[in-house]
Specification:
about 150 residues; alpha+beta; 5 helices
Amino acid sequence: MRSAREGDAAELADLSRPFVRSGALRERPVALYAAHAADFLVAEAPGGGLEGCVGLRVHVAGAGECGGPAGVLYNFCVAGPSQGRGVGAGLLGAALAAARARSLGALFTATTGSGALFLRHGFAPSAAWSAPRAWVRSLDPRRDALVLARAL
């Protein structure tokens, strides 16, 4: 596991593309991956290339919001051949450690799938109102995503 670099942007987009096609992820241009590369943790394959990624965006509490800073996990994906080999669990563990190192009070994510990996790692269904407002406003209601949260 390592932090992504701006030079990983094209590979992050390529890794995400099958999940975009399936409707599991929103499409993001390569330029957006480059601009937000610092948000991402990546898992590298032994022979090079990326096996998976997850973004961690920090949200400070806005006016009228309670609590301290919270994190949002996004664009979490693992390449098909690497699924079921612990890559996703490793990425999630690294994201939890990064969130703790930043003294975040909670982590949130939204999924259109079962969320089984998140549930196994202490996340639970959550009301959207408890998540950072800016992030909640960015969610597409047509996707009918399940919001999950975990206190840290």
